[in-house]
Each structure stands twice: as C-alpha cells, then as structure tokens.
Amino acid sequence: MPAALPHPALTAGHVFIAASMDGYIARRDGAIDFLDPYTEDHGYDAFMAGVDGLIMGRATFELVMTFPGWPFTKPVVVLSRSLAPGALPQTLAGKVRILDGTPREVMRDLYKDGWRNAYVDGGKVIQSFLRDGLIGDLIVTRVPILLGDGIPLFGPLASDVALRHIETKTFASGLVQSKYEIRG
C-alpha cells in the first residue's frame, strides 16, 4: 500500500478488481459468472491483509448477499441512500454498517474510527472516489474475455487521472494483473 494520500485526516482508498478486456466488471444484470473459471491465487488475501475494511455500494452488497456465505472477515461499510440499517440480517450485526455520506465524509469518519486503508469496491463507488481524489492505487486484473456490454469499471471524470505503472503480473489462467498508483 502507498504510505497515504495527500489528505492526512482521510482514510486512503485502494482498488482491487477484475474487468473484462473491454472494461466491464459485471454483466448488465450484475452477474460476474465470467470470473468463475479463475480460482488461482491472484493476491487477494495479501491485498486484504493491508486494509482495515471494505467500502462498497448497495448493488455490490446485494450481489455479495447472494453468495453461499459472508466472505469477509474485516468490517464492511455499504454506501446507500435507500438501504436502512435495520434492513440488515442479524447475522451481519457488527460486521456491516450502512452509511449515507459523500466519499470525503465517509473517508473522514472512517479515519476517525481508526481506518487508514480501505478497499473500495463497486463500479459507481470506485468512480465517485476517483472523482474525489480518494483512491491511492488500483490493482486491475484483466480477464481474457470480451463481454460487449455490462457495467463499466470507469466512467466520466472531470479531468484526467494520471497513473504510474507499478507492476504487471501474468497468471497461467490468462489473467493479467496491473497495479497503478494515482499520480497527484
């Protein structure tokens, strides 16, 4: 993880995500079945060891809720204007909290809670945190498939976001993973 963002009282955001070769993180309906064949270790556990928790949007949270079990051992923050905290299943008490704030407000509040590094996940959430300059680095794994349509990883930005390539790894399965730091 980079030391910190240029905002000393904000949690630093980090992205670890897979996308099709044409830049989609999910099918239009949110399905991520195209990731199913890829079971080798791609560094996820090592990445997770360096973060204090996860921040995701409502759509990503609803997708995770369809998984056979809760996959996270670290705290999760769900950003939503429509989910009520009382709507969470009892099994997620103490594991998940719902917040309705701007990316900057959320990162400030999490910093006060002791978070220094957060995994930022979900297309729209990643895009909004990038627009606000709250992402320190991105690890993007390209999946060797063209979906033709779906939910894009990146969206409109007010200005260019300059990146510095850190490293690229290839995997026997055909996945190609690149890490970039956001250049301030």
> Order of SSEs, N→C?
EEHEHEEHEHEEEE
Intertermini distance? 16 Å
Uncertain stretches of 5 or more adjacent residues: none
Using the coordinates above, name the CATH class. Answer: Alpha Beta
The CATH architecture classification is 3-Layer(aba) Sandwich
CATH superfamily: Dihydrofolate Reductase, subunit A
Can you walk through the features of this model?
The longest helix has 10 residues. The protein has a single domain, classed as Dihydrofolate Reductase, subunit A, CATH 3.40.430.10. By secondary structure, it is of the alpha/beta class. It has 4 helices and 10 strands; from the N terminus they run ββαβαββαβαββββ. The strands form 2 sheets. It has an 8-stranded mixed sheet with strand order 5-4-3-6-1-7-10-9. A two-stranded antiparallel ribbon has the order 2-8.
Key features of this structure:
alpha/beta, eight-stranded mixed sheet
How is this structure best summarized?
The protein is α/β, with parallel strands linked by helices. It has helices at about 45-50, 60-65, 105-110, 125-130; strands at about 10-20, 25, 55, 75-80, 95-100, 115-120, 135-145, 150, 165-170, 175-180. It has an eight-stranded mixed sheet with strand order 5-4-3-6-1-7-10-9. Strands 2-8 form a two-stranded antiparallel ribbon.
